[in-house]
Structures
1.
Amino acid sequence: MTGTMRAVVLDAPGPPEALQIRDLPIPEERPGWVRIRVEAFGLNRSELHTRLGLAEGVTFPRVLGIECVGTVDSAPGTDLVPGQKVAAMMGGMGRTFDGGYAEYTSVPAAQVIPIETDLPWETFGALPEMLQTAYGSLTKGLNAQAGETLLIRGGTSSIGMATIGLAKDMGLTVIATTRNPKRTAAIREAGADHAVVDDGKIADSVRQIAPDGVDVALELVGTPTLPDTLAATKVHGTVCFTGILSNEWTVKDFYPIAYIPSGVRLTGYGGDVTDLPTPILQHYVNAVAAGEFRTNIHSVYSLDQIREAHHDMEHNLAVGKLVIRVHH
């Protein structure tokens, strides 16, 4: 297959205007790689960090995008067949090789999940990375169990909203935070048992709900709020550092004994496609189709609106997921 495709290229870090839509050659066939006709993709903070020059190991120019959904166009040397619906994510997409911000992308077969669904592409496109991060954080990161109480710091983010739904599905009591008092209703509608307005210090408010502290906590804001999240967690409880909505992810002069309350466990989750088993993604795709699980999509944009979408992500204007629909 020869020809050109439209793709979003970043030549070097910069503002949203640095994202350029260009005509590029359609990726060539490669044994063990899957060429996907991209139909939709979700936006992720990881891509914002790349655009801002905060991500390590990225080479430019680069087509961004750590996930996408679409159909198999070519898959030599794999079990996949042209026309199959698939999701792809992680594994260097949009960082060390060109990713999903394009009409076609080529991805190692190990990063591709075949899925059967009749969901609209934009709905399906909201799910893969969001579910992978939420599910991986709850299972691998926190080992969360039914009956436990979970604190989600950053509840109106797409990962926060997805984690609320997954955690309720797993039988947890959920406390979720938002900095905006007007968004507490959205958190409750997503399924949270308690909504807490985050003024930077919420440990006391959380302990009014869970006097001994929460069993497990998911930190999605970053290092500015991490000490307070640790303070809201009980002895032998676990905090998982997954998200960096604040764009701050390092602790200066880290002294563990002073930083981490005695007996509280701190872990992290970076995740990969292998942390979201195919049956789990299929289960939640089916649950969305049946109206049993919310996708919490904030806005759907066209490829031509990629700058607007990145602006909205950077300025935290969304409650839930931002999705790009590539082909109409």
2.
Amino acid sequence: MSDVDALIEGFARYKAAYQNNPERHQRLISQQRQPPRVMMVACCDSRVDPAIITDSRAGDIFVLRNIANLVPPMSEQHRYAETSAAIEFGVCYLEVETLIVMGHSRCGGIGTLVNRLIDESLPSHPLEEWTAIAEPVATEVLRDHPQMPLDQKICACSRAALSVSLTNLLTYPWVAEREARGSLSLRGWYFNLATAELEELDPATGEFSLLC
């Protein structure tokens, strides 16, 4: 069976599940808008689909996926407009109550950043320009832990990048306003592929605690 055939068979199972539960399907399509209470900024990595690893159903999570689950700062020049537009849509139009940035171990996008910094080269193409959002904290990790193995450096930078994204979220006025009045909660999660554990960042201390 080809990979595409496997996808089609998977869709057939998905379709059968909905046919066996028509009430839920009807609720989803009859609503004026999609119903998620949670938005998640996650990585494009095929191993860390947030709906799969949280065992969520259709309509549960509004998901923005990009390389290395990064959130850029608000830009008056409309840089990274696609990511900014998704954040605006989730917060202002869907009125999500929780916005989670979820990083993960062995992130290839962060790996490209770390290797570029080790090579001491400047960003020269779209991937490098995008991951440069996390360059300040990655530079600190490499400076403070020169003897750390490369894989561990990448994981440490992935963890540090969560703080950058959470800080950058507050540069969006509609996020900062809702967070200040308590109608929007910002959280940083880290999924460890090796151990299948989920951790949460405490932005005040920079420490991670085990969620599950």
3.
Amino acid sequence: MTRVTGVRFVIVVCVLVALTSPFFGMSVITPAALFDAGSPDFELFWRLRLPRVVLAFLSGAGLAVSGMVFQALFRNPLATPFTLGVSSGAALGASLYFRLGAGVTVLGSLGSIGAALTGGLISVATVYLITRAKGGFSTPVMLLAGVIINFFFSSLVMFIQYLSSTQDSMRILHWLMGSLSGIEIPRLPDLAFVVIVGALCIGRITQEIDLLTAGEDIAASRGVRVGQTKLIIFLAASAMVGTIVSMAGPISFVGMMVPQICRILFGWSHRRLLPVVFFMGGAFLILCDLAARTLLAPAELPIGIITALLGGPFFLWTLFRAGRNDELF
């Protein structure tokens, strides 16, 4: 099987996962129930399960694509959408919304989605300004600035949680663990717009991303505008991650695991990787959400726990695999 055929096969499997998963949960819904408007299964499918699967797919796809471009940018498989403090910035914005009850408007939506997106963009802007202040656009400086911003914003989130009432504090804690429950259906079009546009923007610079993985000097010698390309990556990935975090919480490790698995299976061409990472990330988070809903039914696990349980061992495997090869990328 060629890599192109393999990509098509994986995409088809991921689409099948997305189409069939709404039928499964604590109870199995039959296809006939979809046309029986008076049945409880009809309401369960259209009002709860299908929107939740859509949220899981878009969130997983956006996180995976963001992880792919950050790994290419840093030339490091351990880089994630959280490396630049995007997640902690979005978490800070949403936490302020939960604490103060105030939000800003983004694409017609009010509340945590606007606050989290604003926080994510502020974190990226801060990292960008720090990097520029040090001269040039150095990747090591950028990575270090991202780690610092991540720790600083995370400490502010804990401070806000400490100052909050018991109810608000528990709400923030539950949200920080990641959850797809309590989905607000009117906000799904906002998420779809941001994720699809972000992926399309990245799709237009896949050739430049390929050259960046070979080194910034080589990319610049081939005519790549390195600074402009990095800025596009920052804005597209940050918008996707910020919007996802506002709706589902900071779900970890998806952006690290899925791109690495796809690179092992399908090579390094980002033009080929982008669609398979997009669909595999979506299917992966759908399956994680299915596990979160069914493992301890009728109780529900936060989806962030599921991804962390999978991501921890994968992180160690990546570290030891890189150590044997004396390189990380």
4.
Amino acid sequence: MSSELFEKDWKYIVDTIYRINAAADLDSFQFNTLQCLRSMIPFCQGLFHIYTREGDTFHLHGAPIVCGDKPRYMDLFLKEYVDDAFFSRASVTSYDEVFRDTDVFPDEVRMQTRWYRDIYVKQGIHFALRSHLAFGGQLIGSVDLFRPKDASDFSDKEVRILGILSRHISLKLSILLHHESIVGQNDKMILKLIARYGLTVREGEVIREVISCLPDAEIASKLCISPSTLKKHIHNIYQKVGVGNRSQLLAVTQSIQ
């Protein structure tokens, strides 16, 4: 099967890269990615998993985002089959990897596995195209696309398209995960500040924006308050925390983190 890409294919690829990078949050990024892929690589069910690592163990970062048919037997898969050698190999992935199930072993072998009979057959799926997404030398996510048995296997061209896009997908995923981590850390820090210095919730919101180094006009607009009200909040924060300027306030927040 030819993997040659034509002008129309490259236009789809460029548009997909744009939409991937335009996503502002994880959920929209995952779903938009699957939708874009579906326009180039038809599938009946697509899953986008995110993984987090604790020591040597990988965990799912919430439920997968789904495009197409709703997945069934996910609990059974996670309980019984996720540690199967075929799936656990992803945990040692240190680079982006795109492959079909049939690239790993022939159908006559795969169709005899318990997970194929217990999960795939019952959902009417047979062919799979997978992308293990890695960044910084470790697995951070995966995209799994499925087709029914009466369809054809994924082509060399479709493998190539997903291979081209996988680097962009993994890079954007790593950026969004890093941003989410920072936001989570800041939220914990704000809660500690509120408890320690007797701040109001609104004052905590002001601190979050102040330490992001936004101009006062942008902070006031974002919080839907007037510039004079913002100045009053900042003055009250300085009094409660015992600081005299933003640099000192930033130092306090950093010490709490």
